[in-house]
């Protein structure tokens, strides 16, 4: 129906006849001559309709915003003084000969260029309108280019694109499963996969050697800016590899991706242990663009007569950390109070601080409600953090977990608020993760998943599981975890040892993971892999604030789709087929009886 997209029209087509199809972006009537800005996925172009072409003029006259038109006309240069060099099609216009109205349109719920004036709920309710915006089109176009580039790279590296089941069985992987009732097996349920983890390991046992998949994954968990109940994962697995092999392959893939899609040469990827990341930044995904670091001051605070500090400093699971902010003494008391409220979100009971006004004056040059409690260590403290005039020092004192989360998050917020970024892109690898993490009752759970290989023997793992390290690695970019992976357990003895430490008995292990344990008996090769969050990757590359901006049809923060009104009720007949009876309906039926 068309010869060109709107965005393809340029000076090379002058005097040629073209046919385009699209939506009316804007209509203007200038003294009997109608100007139509037409839009499609490639861009916007200007069309001029004269009264001389009666039928075309009549159709253009009745066209309104978002009408669907087909226009045929001659490309010509715009008159001097009306050209727009900032617009790809701004040097030309099309003198229309034929204008056909393919469909009318109701008044849209919002104008595309005024989308900021309506709430996100309105835009998600009418997502098909929101997706017409040029910036949304560009984000999804970018997503398509990223997916294509990833596929091409992995295919060139010998990886095979293999699909894995979406209907599978529930396995504990750290989040709640989405369950699907079975009609043919009454009382039984499928689960939507949180990841293709077990199947890709089985593919390695099957000998496929190098696998990848751009896979849909599902997790029923609380949402935030970079989470959705259904998300897309670039899943990669390979046999006969070690950590360096997977890290080298995937780092090269990301480097090529940024170079070819954004023309960006990423800097070096430093490697940092998990422990170093937590000590220096309070996070296992530190944003290295921010030149602020946490400094341990436990030894100093054990010497002060201030229990708020001395207590955590002396506790086995406690920590006192200082965060120096250069130039931060200019922060007002109101701003400090806001930061105090902010760290409270992460469980911090308060936020102590010291302003360094004139260090040469000793205690008189310091401003703080707590400095009187630490006179005996204050000079050593200032030396340790490298404090200078005009700085502020924030403190976190509590359980190490709370201090890391609260002061680590404060570091990121200060970096954004004070515009402290030193570079555009800051990638790194985080390695040597703990194998397990303990809850408040001391019960161990896998930090990643129970199929991650430890970096020690089964005997050593049994003797000291709390301090064991795993063969896991995460790629981090600008404070966002792009992807995580590990070398997997390929030995049945090691897998059974991990289950035993986690309190999973033989019967339970066989019930939940029997097919994997059985497969490990039949010559499983050493293997490992890594999974990237495609949505997060696109979000970063597009400069978007949330992954909802780079997903065509996302869910809300409450895991609902406003456009389709999902989730929704189903009919009684459907429930009957599935042998399901809703408790609320059962109560209502009982009451009526």
Automatic annotation (TrEMBL):
Binding site for ATP: 219-221, 228, 481, 533-536
Entry annotated with the keyword Ligase: yes
Sites where the protein binds L-aspartate: 173, 219, 448, 488
GO biological process: aspartyl-tRNA aminoacylation
Enzyme Commission (EC) number: 6.1.1.23
InterPro entries the UniProt entry points to: Aa-tRNA-synt_II, aa-tRNA-synth_II, aa-tRNA-synth_II/BPL/LPL, Asp-tRNA-ligase_1, Asp-tRNA-ligase_1_N, Asp/Asn-tRNA-synth_IIb, AspRS_core, GAD-like_sf
Coiled coil: none
Function per UniProt: Aspartyl-tRNA synthetase with relaxed tRNA specificity since it is able to aspartylate not only its cognate tRNA(Asp) but also tRNA(Asn). Reaction proceeds in two steps: L-aspartate is first activated by ATP to form Asp-AMP and then transferred to the acceptor end of tRNA(Asp/Asn).
Protein name: Aspartate--tRNA(Asp/Asn) ligase
Organism of this sequence: Vreelandella andesensis
The encoding gene: aspS
